[in-house]
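seq as requested:
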Amino acid sequence: MFGKKVITRTIKATIINIIMAILITVAFIYIIQLFFGKEINEGVSLINMMSVEVANIKLEEATIDEEESRLQNYPEYGTQYATIKIPKIDVNLPVYYGNTLDILKKGVGQSGGSYFPGEGGSIIYMGHNSANVFRRFSELQKGNEIIVTTSYGEYKYKIYDMQIIKETEMEKLPIQRDREILMVYTCYPFRNIGYTTQRYVVYAEPVEK
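struct tokens:
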């Protein structure tokens, strides 16, 4: 009988210790997030942006044929030339021409090998998957609107597809001249910490005016 009481007390003490450990861990995580959340998100974003940067190396090899271009003046590399709005997920971010780590820290980048809105070809945007950029991409649905406002006009696009692709599947981010498609992608899984080999791509086509 005495032995059963000892075992019972031991089990109860163990359960209490486990519960206390869980509560302390949760409280510790909450305190860290409360005081250092911004720094942690920036650190995670930097790691994941490196993953985005690697994927863009092949895209940079393609260039726009200047004879086919329709814009009067092109933005300088590294400068902001537009904003992108995705009302469904409350995104309203600056768009920069280029895709370096410094650019992606400031907002959304555009592949130097892709076309610009209104030129009639493939447009490729990318951004990291932090909370204030594209983490809510999973909430997007077909038919949702993306609005790109440039220094030379406003362009509206409607989402028609979403795909999870491997970073090596560059054929799923085609740069083509005969059809205007806006492709926006980020690292996947959205809350992954560290290098990731997958991308979540949103495909949108121009809304007829």
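The longest helix spans residues 2-55.
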